[in-house]
Amino acid sequence: MIEFSVSFSGLKFEEVYQKLSGELKEKLVDRLTDIAFAAAFWEAPVKTGYLASTVYKDKGVVGAAASYAAAVEYGTAPHEIRPVNSGLLAFEVAGKMVFSPLVHHPGTRANPFMQRALNQTLDKVDSVFAELWLELVSG
After folding, report:
1. Which of 70, 89, 99, 109 has its CA 20 to 30 A from that of 26?
2. Do 16 and 70 reside in the same domain of the chain?
3. CA nearest 24: which of 126, 135, 118?
4. Is 91 helix (H, G, I), strand (E, B) or coil?
Protein backbone atom coordinates (compact mmCIF):
# COMPACT_ATOMS: atom_id res chain seq x y z
CA MET A 1 0.00 0.00 0.00
CA ILE A 2 1.13 3.55 -0.70
CA GLU A 3 -0.63 6.84 0.02
CA PHE A 4 -0.22 10.58 0.29
CA SER A 5 -2.09 13.28 2.15
CA VAL A 6 -3.55 16.40 0.59
CA SER A 7 -2.23 19.17 2.83
CA PHE A 8 -0.64 22.57 2.49
CA SER A 9 2.20 22.21 4.97
CA GLY A 10 5.42 23.60 3.52
CA LEU A 11 3.81 24.97 0.36
CA LYS A 12 3.88 28.62 -0.67
CA PHE A 13 0.09 28.49 -0.31
CA GLU A 14 0.23 27.47 3.39
CA GLU A 15 0.00 31.04 4.75
CA VAL A 16 -3.15 31.77 2.75
CA TYR A 17 -4.63 28.38 3.64
CA GLN A 18 -4.23 29.08 7.37
CA LYS A 19 -6.38 32.24 7.00
CA LEU A 20 -9.31 30.50 5.28
CA SER A 21 -12.59 29.70 6.96
CA GLY A 22 -13.29 26.10 7.94
CA GLU A 23 -15.83 25.53 5.17
CA LEU A 24 -13.58 26.92 2.44
CA LYS A 25 -10.63 24.87 3.73
CA GLU A 26 -12.76 21.74 3.70
CA LYS A 27 -14.02 22.38 0.17
CA LEU A 28 -10.48 23.06 -1.05
CA VAL A 29 -9.11 19.82 0.44
CA ASP A 30 -12.13 17.85 -0.86
CA ARG A 31 -11.79 19.18 -4.39
CA LEU A 32 -8.02 18.63 -4.48
CA THR A 33 -8.49 15.13 -3.07
CA ASP A 34 -10.93 14.38 -5.90
CA ILE A 35 -8.38 15.65 -8.43
CA ALA A 36 -5.59 13.58 -6.85
CA PHE A 37 -7.79 10.47 -6.77
CA ALA A 38 -8.67 10.79 -10.46
CA ALA A 39 -5.05 11.46 -11.41
CA ALA A 40 -3.80 8.43 -9.42
CA PHE A 41 -6.46 6.22 -11.01
CA TRP A 42 -5.58 7.30 -14.56
CA GLU A 43 -1.81 7.30 -13.96
CA ALA A 44 -1.77 3.76 -12.52
CA PRO A 45 -0.11 1.42 -15.02
CA VAL A 46 -2.53 -1.09 -16.51
CA LYS A 47 -1.72 -4.72 -17.02
CA THR A 48 -4.74 -6.32 -15.38
CA GLY A 49 -6.40 -3.15 -14.03
CA TYR A 50 -6.18 -4.35 -10.44
CA LEU A 51 -3.77 -1.62 -9.27
CA ALA A 52 -6.04 1.16 -10.54
CA SER A 53 -9.05 -0.56 -8.96
CA THR A 54 -7.40 -0.30 -5.53
CA VAL A 55 -6.86 3.48 -5.72
CA TYR A 56 -8.89 5.11 -2.93
CA LYS A 57 -9.55 8.46 -1.27
CA ASP A 58 -10.58 9.21 2.29
CA LYS A 59 -10.65 12.63 4.00
CA GLY A 60 -7.69 14.21 2.27
CA VAL A 61 -5.74 10.99 1.72
CA VAL A 62 -5.23 9.25 -1.62
CA GLY A 63 -3.66 5.83 -1.85
CA ALA A 64 -3.40 2.53 -3.66
CA ALA A 65 -4.11 -0.57 -1.59
CA ALA A 66 -2.61 -3.21 -3.89
CA SER A 67 0.11 -5.12 -2.05
CA TYR A 68 2.56 -4.31 -4.83
CA ALA A 69 1.72 -0.59 -5.20
CA ALA A 70 4.93 0.57 -3.49
CA ALA A 71 7.03 -1.75 -5.68
CA VAL A 72 5.46 -0.17 -8.77
CA GLU A 73 5.95 3.36 -7.43
CA TYR A 74 9.57 2.96 -6.28
CA GLY A 75 10.77 -0.02 -8.33
CA THR A 76 12.65 -2.98 -6.92
CA ALA A 77 16.30 -3.93 -6.69
CA PRO A 78 17.52 -7.20 -8.19
CA HIS A 79 16.44 -10.04 -5.92
CA GLU A 80 16.00 -13.78 -5.64
CA ILE A 81 12.60 -15.44 -5.78
CA ARG A 82 12.24 -18.76 -3.96
CA PRO A 83 9.20 -21.02 -3.72
CA VAL A 84 7.09 -20.75 -0.58
CA ASN A 85 4.73 -23.73 -0.68
CA SER A 86 6.72 -26.24 -2.75
CA GLY A 87 10.22 -27.03 -3.86
CA LEU A 88 9.91 -25.48 -7.33
CA LEU A 89 8.68 -22.35 -9.02
CA ALA A 90 6.62 -22.88 -12.17
CA PHE A 91 6.29 -20.23 -14.89
CA GLU A 92 6.06 -19.91 -18.65
CA VAL A 93 8.88 -18.65 -20.88
CA ALA A 94 8.36 -18.34 -24.64
CA GLY A 95 5.37 -20.66 -24.48
CA LYS A 96 7.18 -23.40 -22.52
CA MET A 97 6.68 -24.33 -18.88
CA VAL A 98 9.83 -23.93 -16.80
CA PHE A 99 10.42 -25.29 -13.30
CA SER A 100 13.18 -23.92 -11.08
CA PRO A 101 14.06 -23.87 -7.38
CA LEU A 102 15.31 -20.27 -7.65
CA VAL A 103 14.93 -17.26 -9.95
CA HIS A 104 17.28 -14.26 -10.07
CA HIS A 105 14.89 -11.39 -10.79
CA PRO A 106 16.61 -8.37 -12.41
CA GLY A 107 14.43 -5.88 -10.50
CA THR A 108 11.88 -3.47 -11.90
CA ARG A 109 12.07 0.12 -12.98
CA ALA A 110 10.08 2.60 -10.88
CA ASN A 111 6.80 3.86 -12.33
CA PRO A 112 5.95 6.74 -9.94
CA PHE A 113 2.25 7.02 -10.78
CA MET A 114 1.38 8.42 -7.35
CA GLN A 115 4.08 11.08 -7.61
CA ARG A 116 2.72 12.10 -11.02
CA ALA A 117 -0.77 12.32 -9.50
CA LEU A 118 0.56 14.47 -6.67
CA ASN A 119 2.38 16.77 -9.11
CA GLN A 120 -0.75 17.16 -11.24
CA THR A 121 -2.72 18.05 -8.11
CA LEU A 122 -0.13 20.59 -6.94
CA ASP A 123 -0.28 22.23 -10.36
CA LYS A 124 -4.01 22.85 -9.83
CA VAL A 125 -3.99 24.32 -6.30
CA ASP A 126 -4.12 27.95 -7.46
CA SER A 127 -6.86 27.42 -10.05
CA VAL A 128 -9.02 25.35 -7.69
CA PHE A 129 -8.65 27.98 -4.98
CA ALA A 130 -9.62 30.70 -7.47
CA GLU A 131 -12.73 28.73 -8.52
CA LEU A 132 -13.81 28.22 -4.93
CA TRP A 133 -13.16 31.87 -4.06
CA LEU A 134 -15.30 33.02 -6.99
CA GLU A 135 -18.07 30.64 -5.92
CA LEU A 136 -17.91 32.10 -2.40
CA VAL A 137 -17.98 35.77 -3.36
CA SER A 138 -20.53 35.45 -6.16
CA GLY A 139 -23.01 33.23 -4.57
Report:
1. 70
2. yes
3. 135
4. strand
